[in-house]
Amino acid sequence: MDDEIEFRLIGQGIKPGLVRSHELAEILEAVESFACSEALESNPDLTKDDVVVGLYHIADESIGLRFKTTMAAAVLPAFIAASQAVAKSDYEALAPQSLKSLQTVAAFAKRHNCKADIQLPGSERPLASITAETVVPPPGRISGSTELMGKVLRVGGKVPRAMIEMLDGSVIYCDVALDVAKELGHRLYALVVFQGLATWDTRTVQLQEFSITGFQEFRQEDALVVLNQLKNKIGHEFAGVKDVPGFAAALRQGEVLQ
Fold it and tell me: Who has greater pLDDT, 186 or 258?
């Protein structure tokens, strides 16, 4: 059972057949998201496609949900560490998506006046418990207008969304207005500068969401042409620099130059 995790809902009236299916579905998704989010946070080299945490057993003792994972070496240590953080109410240690998942669980516990135990199968004591009194804070976020550059990989859907490959190779999915999506569909695999509203995690300063409001295709110019343009605009500011290698080295080291 070294590839399993368990989540148990305990309380009066908490049994299979007595809880609405859509509520159980929300709990299942929350547990899977919690485990996967923490595994990805602890293992940046993994992607969502690498990690699977799936339900394989429901026990008719209150409601006991058991999950198996395909990446136990990554998932279990992260799951245990995150659960211990929950037990200490150290929510700042958790990924933003994990907080959303825990809020779903806390809302269920409050609604049904029950308890949710996070544990490993066979353990005598849970790693953490969420009760009707548990308050899970929302993820710390900041929002603002910004520009991003990336390659358009896909655009579409009943509710339009765009799949964008960033310059570092990472992929993000963005909301996009219908009229912008129609125009963006003609720029597949093109490098584009996007304008829009972004949301960042205040703890990691990582981009969490981006909604596209406009774009323009990136004009790729010859490097020598660009350098000549820079020279014409600001070259006079560096006319007095005699030791170019030394000047560049000082800039790299963060020295303030007068």
Answer: 186
Distance CA 6, CA 55 (A): 9
φ/ψ of 7, rounded to 5, equals -140, 120
| Band (258; pLDDT cuts 50, 70, 90) | low
Instruction: Tell me how far the alpha carbon of residue 91 is from its chain's centroid.
Output: 16
**CA nearest neighbour of 63 among 125, 15, 27, 102:** 15
Does the pTM of the predicted model rise above 0.90?
A: no
120-143 pLDDT tens trace: 988 889 999 999 999 999 888 899
> How many angstroms separate the Cα of 151 from the Cα of each of 19, 158, 188?
45, 22, 8
Across the chain, where does the E strand assignment appear?
A: 4-10, 53-59, 63-69, 115-119, 128-130, 141-156, 161-166, 171-176, 191-201, 207-217
Out of 3.40.1650.10, 1.10.1040.10, 2.40.50.140, 3.40.50.10540, the CATH code matching 141-217 is 2.40.50.140
Domain extents in the chain: 4-130, 141-217
Contact 86, 109 (CB under 8 A): no
